[in-house]
Amino acid sequence: MNREEIEEMLKNFGLSEYEAKAYYALLLLGHSKASEICKLARIPQSKIYEVLDRLAEKNLVEVYEVRPKEFKPISPQVVLRNFLEAQERKIKEMKEKIEELVTSLNSRGTKVFEGIWASRERGWKVFMNKATEMFEHAENYVFVMSKYFSWSSRLAKAVKACIKRGVEIKTIASKGIDETNYYRAKWYHDNGVKIRVLRSGKYPSLIDVDGKEVLLRLDKNSSRRNPVFTSIWSKDEGFTRIIDTFVKHIWRNSRPVDFEKLKKLVEKA
C-alpha cells in the first residue's frame, strides 16, 4: 500500500486527515519531535501540537514531557484492536437501545415518552412527513440509511433546499441499488446527494440530522406497497450520539456508486 492508501485507511478508522497524516509519519519516524512530524506529515506548523494532542487523547501516541515535547506512536496492532472493540461496544449499545425502545412501545402503546416520539403506521405518510420536517431544518449534514430511496414532492423540495444552503447529504443504500430503486437513487445523486452502497438488509432505515435528532423506521413486514412499521424519532443526546457514531462508521465502510455502470446493468435487466 502507498502512503495515500494507508492514510485513507486510517481516516476510515475515525481519524481526521491531519491525524491520519501525523500518525503515519510517527510510525515512520518512531520516537520524534513535533517539528520532525510536522515536516514529514506536511501539516501546518500552527496545527501540529493540536493534532498530536488529539492523537494522545485517542491513545494513539505517547507524550514525553520534555522540552520540546517528544512523541512515540502506539503499536498499530494495539490501536486497531482497540478501535474495533470500541466500535463493537457502540453497535451493541445501539442494538440494546433499539430493543429497549421496541419493548417499551409494544408494552405501552404510547405516542410520546421520555422525549421520544413514536408512531405505528401502515403506509408512508407519517414517516415521510417527519423525514421532510427534519430535512427542512438541517444545518450541517444529514445521513440517511435507506432500502427504497423513498421520494415525495415535498421531500424532494426539502432535499434541494438543503443542498442549496450547503447541507451535506449522504445516503447509504442498505440493500444495494437495482432496477427497483435505481431511478429514485439516481434522482438523489443527480441533485447532489452522495450515495454509497452497503449490501445488507439487516439495518433499520434511518435519518440522522446534524447528530442532534434521529428518525428510525422498524419494518414489521416486507410489503413495499402496504408496509407496516414503527417510526421512532428522538433528540435524546445519548441516543442520537450512538446513532450518529454508528451511521458514520457504516458510511466509511460502504462503497461508492458508479451510476454509469449501474445504468448499463439496469438497462439489461
Measured by DSSP, the beta-strand proportion falls in: 15-25%
Give the tally of structural domains: 2
According to CATH, the fold-level topology of the largest domain is Endonuclease, Chain A
Tally of individual helices: 10
**Percent helix range:** 40-55%
- Provide the CATH superfamily of the largest domain: Endonuclease Chain A
- Give a quick account of the main beta sheet: strands, pairing sense, barrel closure: 9 strands, mixed
Number of strands: 12
Topology:
Blueprint: H1 3-12, H2 17-29, E1 32-33, H3 34-41, H4 48-57, E2 61-64, E3 70-73, H5 76-108, E4 112-113, E5 116-122, H6 125-136, E6 141-146, H7 153-164, E7 168-173, H8 182-190, E8 194-197, E9 205-209, E10 213-219, E11 228-234, H9 237-252, E12 255-256, H10 259-268
Parallel strand pairs: 6-7, 7-8
Antiparallel strand pairs: 1-3, 2-3, 4-5, 5-11, 6-9, 8-12, 9-10, 10-11
Short summary of the structure?
With 269 residues, the chain is α+β, with helices and mostly antiparallel strands.
Polypeptide structure, described:
- With 269 residues, this protein is of the alpha+beta class.
- It has helices spanning 3-12, 17-29, 34-41, 48-57, 76-108, 125-136, 153-164, 182-190, 237-252, 259-268, and strands spanning 32-33, 61-64, 70-73, 112-113, 116-122, 141-146, 168-173, 194-197, 205-209, 213-219, 228-234, 255-256.
- The protein has 2 domains: 3-74, Winged helix-like DNA-binding domain superfamily/Winged helix DNA-binding domain (Arc Repressor Mutant, subunit A, Orthogonal Bundle); 87-268, 2-Layer Sandwich (Endonuclease, Chain A), CATH 3.30.870.10.
- The chain has 10 helices and 12 strands.
- Strand 10 (213-219) and strand 11 form a beta hairpin.
- Helix 2 crosses helix 3 (34-41), helix 2 (17-29) packs across helix 4 and helix 5 (76-108) crosses helix 9.
- The protein is elongated, with a radius of gyration of 22 Å.
- The two termini are 37 Å apart.
